[in-house]
Design brief:
This protein is an alpha+beta fold. It is 33% helix and 33% strand. The chain has three helices and eight strands. The chain has a four-stranded antiparallel β-sheet, with helices on one face. The chain has a four-stranded antiparallel β-sheet with strand order 5-6-7-8. Strand 6 and strand 7 form a beta hairpin. It is elongated, with a radius of gyration of 25 Å.
Length: 193
């Protein structure tokens, strides 16, 4: 009888632990879902003309009171199909921590320039688009982009960088530019239509 009672108590204890663990998982899942919804709604209000808005990731942080919160990194890109796309990273604290927000981080801006040379890192597709026509080794692509105002870029990630294709309905040709992550321009191929 005592053995059966001990087995029942152990089973009840295990069941309780599973229920509490499941509730914690559900609570965390709901909190992340709520946070994502809040961030995407806020981005839509901050950048209503953005071509791309997305959450890039989050991490759990602890404030000075020992309370956990999420630090969420999100992105908004404006003008993705232009020669000079603007990419901005926003950081959110959820729930709000002391009402102090991190300032937005402008990855690219209206200056339409990115690094070139030693120490350069092209980390994002918007930077690759800009480098594909502003790099000193891409002069013919720059002439193409300036000569055909309807030129539109498309980007494809590849090992070690990107391929940026430039096409214009007004031209009988376009370019495919290899942009390496270190900022160097690789092959520039002319594509005829």
């Amino acid at each position: 009888m005592e053995e059966k009672l001990a087995v029942i108590l152990i089973m009840l204890l295990l069941a309780s632990l599973l229920i509490v663990g499941g509730m914690k998982f559900y609570e965390e899942d709901v909190e992340i879902g709520d946070a994502e919804e809040y961030v995407l709604e806020d981005l839509a209000q901050k950048q209503p003309l953005a071509d791309v808005t997305e959450i890039l990731g989050w991490e759990t942080k602890t404030n000075e009171l020992g309370e956990e919160y999420l630090r969420i990194r999100a992105r908004a890109t404006l003008g993705m199909k232009t020669p000079c796309p603007i990419r901005i990273h926003y950081f959110y604290h959820y729930p709000v921590q002391n009402f102090i927000a991190d300032p937005p981080e402008y990855i690219t801006d209206s200056g339409c320039s990115v690094c070139e040379g030693t120490g350069c890192v092209i980390a994002f597709e918007e930077e690759a688009i800009i480098a594909s026509h502003t790099n000193s080794k891409a002069e013919r692509v720059e002439k193409y982009v300036n000569g055909y105002p309807d030129a539109v870029p498309s980007v494809e990630a590849e090992a070690g960088g990107w391929k940026v294709a430039w096409n214009s309905d007004s031209a009988k040709y376009g370019y495919v530019v290899e942009v390496k992550k270190n900022g160097e321009i690789g092959d520039i191929d002319t594509v005829y239509y």
